[in-house]
Amino acid sequence: MGGLSLNPLVAGLVVAARLVAAVDLKTCKADIQQRLDNNTLSRNDTIFYFNGTSYMSGPIDIWLTLPGCQTTCPNPNIDLYDDMWPRLLTWLVPALLLVGSVHLPRIGHLNRIFVILHFMGDPIDSMWALLTKGEVWNRFYSLALRRTLAGPDQEPMAKALAVMLSAFEELTGDMATVEEEFNAIMTENGAQLSKEDLDYILKETAEELVDSRSNEGLRTILVIVNYLWAVLAALVPEIGGTQSSQPGGRIGTAMFLSWLVTAVLLSNTLSGFTSRRTCLRIMERYTRTLKGKKRDMHFFPYSPRILAQAKRGKVDDFIDAQPWNGSVYSYRPRKRLTCSSGKGDWSPAFLLALSTMPVIIAAVSAFVIIWFTPTIGLGCRTLWVIALTAGLFISPILTWAISRTVHRGRTAWYATIAKDAVFGATGVLVILLSSIGIFNTCWCWSGVYSRGLAGAYIDLEPEDERLYNAHHLYPAMVGTCLALQVVTYVVMHRVMKPGGIVFRPREEEKMEQYRAIHGLTGSPDIEMKGPAARGRAVGGDRRESEAAPLLLPPAALGSPHGSPLLRPRAGSHTSLRSSGGVEDEHPNWHTPEYHLTT
């Protein structure tokens, strides 16, 4: 729900709203109308607003001055809306579902709550960090295209290389040294693998990394549809039922939260690994295979950030440091981008500007809707929109200041979350109080902040304006707001598209890559011996068996139609030994369960 500041203006609004009694406008109008009808109240009484020519005390339009409302209408027994619980359920549950649909990495329950707090307390920085992550993928993909040789295999090799570079960045959090780390591993080649073997292992590892990422797109669409249905219920009484007051406040609040739609879509577009430990294990196995080692490789000698941590007295465990070391895509204190290709790169300034658009669209839409909800003008609700929007822009500035002044990752993470908890909790509290009637007072209905005390008035039952807004203003503003949010997301998606095709291919593309890498596209007529032949005898044709592909080596070993990536090397003998030391009969069959030895 928006990064929102604990602001003197917000606190003043809440206090001022309670200094005057709560008001039931319908009951007040009925009471005054009855007194006018039985002549116990003059139509020229000073409680009525004078528009320059006459007092507004007609049978249809009854406008009261601010003092007149405060002395005539207050009902101390009605402090909040009678239907406050249905009001909360109308938008609160859909909004909570939206917040809960933000992609949450597996970093422990407490840290996952912290991720939500950061999203609520600093959506601009969260979306900026997500866009920066997408641009990192873009630049690595561009770099990979420049580093791979032209030919029919360039595109899949470039994608595989981009995935590997992105995985190194995922673990080290240091974009500038990724290429150097990767080249060091490839150059060492302690296992003395051929280029064909290196290419095959690279593609296999990249395919496993891509397949280890989560995809919650369908769930995200469902919760967004639920949110849109709640907005529709506020617009259409036949769906949401009648309410005790004008729907402008509810609709304005829903539009103020509309940035959640873009943020949730953006978060789930990038998604993440099912677990960072999964990424770490895959990369450990990759480096172990290339280096010819039997132990996991945890050391990245070319990453100054990790080396700087190692030189201190206390080093955070890699797993414990995940929240502030890259696992949370929506928290990225260092947004500097390297590996520039020039053409097609997006600068951090552009990404920052783009990340502010959902908040600007939401705030402007909410302000216009609430402004034109009678009494037209600047009231308590429009002021909280201004105050909370200011908090949305102050919060990322404070996040930046923390990242520049606090150098220890753990401390910066907790300081940022503490700040976001204050901003977010304040905003949620103000929105909740507004929704249940805390601003349902003569003062807040009078437009006093724009009209002044002398010009302030309260229209007790603005039925004409309400009908006009319900049929024209509200639908137009809601449609425009949501359409602009969708357009903003489309632009964000377009910005991240080059790198997104690497990590977020369609399921059909994943299966095609799997078949190509594992040799499942070749001819089944291959002479096999040992366990492979027995696996085929039991399972039949490998393309007709669900279990056999997991048991058979790539078809490239014996078929001219198989994968061209893996070939037996002349003059060398490569064997695979299991952890029990038994030599496998298929020397070129590489699976994660075995260590490669020469």
Automatic annotation (TrEMBL):
Transmembrane segment boundaries: 84-104, 217-236, 256-275, 350-372, 384-402, 422-448, 473-492
Keywords linked to the UniProt accession: Membrane, Signal, Transmembrane, Transmembrane helix
Domain of life from the UniProt record: Eukaryota
Signal peptide from the UniProt entry: 1-22
Renumbered residue ranges of the record's region Disordered: 521-598
Low complexity bias spans: 547-557
Protein name per its UniProtKB record: Uncharacterized protein
Originating organism: Parathielavia appendiculata
